[in-house]
Amino acid sequence: MSLEWNLERIGRAGFIGILRGDEPEALIERGQKLSDAGVKVLEVTLDSTDAARVFRTLKEQLDGDVMLGVGTVMHPPTALPSVAEWGADFALSPINPEGFIQLAHELGILAVPGVATPSELWRAHTAGAMLVKLYPAATNWSPEMLANLPRPLRQVHTLPTGGVKPQDVPAWLDAGAYACGLGSKLTIEEANFLSSEILARRGVMR
User: Which helix or strand (DSSP H or E) is residue 15 part of?
Assistant: First the structure.
């Protein structure tokens, strides 16, 4: 898959379901249930217990229609070659580690660095990031702030993550976000409703 296609798939999905925790079996079960509810993009955070097994199991069990990536990349030279072997399509970080964007893209993985300020957003963009994580969105960002950024910054594809609630997603998308990251606040019922709502926004019926 090309980086452009990976980016497109995240945009079409409208949100990423984030899997993080200390119980691998529970994460696998949650990933399967989120997929059944219509979630098209899932992220397994690398700080989760036995993240490799969680990722590989979901990769084997889920429909190829579900895109899988990883989160919480802190040391790219160590993490990225491993997750490339797992088949990760994208990799997120709460920060923008040195060399992260370049190495991920060389490995065919869409890099999504995290930024806390408009200056960091622009630096990540000019360093080659095709999608940038606004983190933590609930405290450092808001839909109003995103909508009122200078025009060049509004052209950057953004992914608000961290404290984002499912009911907040439409406001973020209306403000110009490309998609959102949703973690523990996302219930299976909300995932089902939100997946349908995103499709409706795009003129597609489930």
Answer: strand 15-19
C-beta separation of 38 from 203 below 8 A: no
Q: Could you tell me the pLDDT band of residue 204, with boundaries at 50, 70 and 90? A: low
Please provide residue 19's backbone torsions phi and psi, each rounded to the nearest 5 degrees.
-110, 115
Judged on CB neighbours under 10 Å (0-12, 13-18, 19+), 139 is exposed
Catalytic residue positions? 43, 133
- The model carries a pTM of 0.96
| CB neighbours of residue 81 within 10 Å | 12
How far out from the chain centre does Cα 124 lie? Answer: 16
Place of tokens 């580690």: 97
Q: What is the pLDDT of residue 201?
A: 85
The pLDDT tens digits for 20-49 are 999 999 999 999 999 999 999 999 999 999
Q: Write out the H or E segment, with its range, that includes residue 10.
A: helix 3-13
- Name 43's bridge partners: 18, 69
Could you give the dihedral angle defined by the CA atoms of residues 159, 170, 65 and 108, in that order, rounded to the nearest 10 degrees?
-10
Is the bond preceding 160 in cis, omega lying within 30 degrees of 0? no
